[in-house]
């Protein structure tokens, strides 16, 4: 997708604070962090959002999760005493603002539930 912000971050056309790259994913710091650790993990291939995921995307979705775990380990929040939240937003009610699938990795502070 030529006009997609996260495709441009994947290609390097738009700058981001990239913390990890894997063959199928790129992870970068959220520009407006909601917590001390807030990283977005995106598939290199453009997928609109989690509601557009089909069985053919299974390898990339698994890679999103393994990359998210690796990011959490790297950021020091993966221990049994800490932990983190993984979020996919879908649509306006969830405040989904960028139409390229991204997994939020949020942590470094005690979360509240339910989310606002
Ligand atoms: P959504 O609300 O769609 O689930 O999440 C989109 C996220 O992308 C938001 O948390 C927002 O702060 C982040 N974001 C939007 N534009 C940029 C950008 O240009 N660079 C980075 N690193 N994050 C962005
Ligand atoms: Zn895209």
Helix content: 10-25%
Q: What is the CA-based Rg, rounded?
A: 14 Å
How are the strands of the biggest sheet laid out side by side?
1-2-3-5-4
Major sheet attributes: 5 strands, antiparallel
The low-pLDDT segments are: none
Strand content: 15-25%
Bound molecules: guanosine-5'-monophosphate, zinc ion
Tally of structural domains: 1
Q: What is the number of E strands? A: 5
Strand and helix order: HEEEHEE
Assign an overall shape.
Answer: globular
CATH class reads Alpha Beta
Q: What is the arithmetic mean of pLDDT?
A: 97
CATH architecture identity: 2-Layer Sandwich
With helices defined by DSSP (H or I, 4 residues minimum), what is the helix count? Answer: 2
Describe this structure in words.
This protein is of the alpha+beta class and 116 residues long. The chain has two helices and five strands. Strands 1-2-3-5-4 form a five-stranded antiparallel sheet, with helices on one face. A hairpin with a 3-residue loop joins β1 (18-21) and β2 (25-29). The longest helix has 17 residues, at 58-74. It is globular, with a radius of gyration of 14 Å. It starts with a helix and ends in a 9-residue tail after the last strand. The structure holds guanosine-5'-monophosphate and zinc ion. The site of guanosine-5'-monophosphate has 13 residues, from β2.
């Amino acid at each position: 997708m030529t006009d997609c912000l996260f495709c441009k971050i994947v290609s390097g056309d738009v700058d981001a604070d990239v913390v990890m790259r894997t063959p199928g994913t790129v992870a970068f710091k959220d520009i407006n962090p909601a917590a001390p650790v807030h990283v977005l993990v995106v598939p290199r291939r453009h997928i609109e959002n989690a509601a557009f995921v089909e069985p053919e995307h299974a390898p990339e979705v698994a890679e999103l999760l393994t990359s998210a775990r690796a990011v959490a380990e790297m950021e020091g929040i993966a221990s049994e005493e800490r932990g983190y939240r993984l979020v996919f937003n879908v649509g306006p009610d969830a405040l989904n603002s960028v139409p390229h699938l991204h997994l939020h990795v949020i942590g470094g502070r005690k979360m509240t539930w339910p989310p606002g």
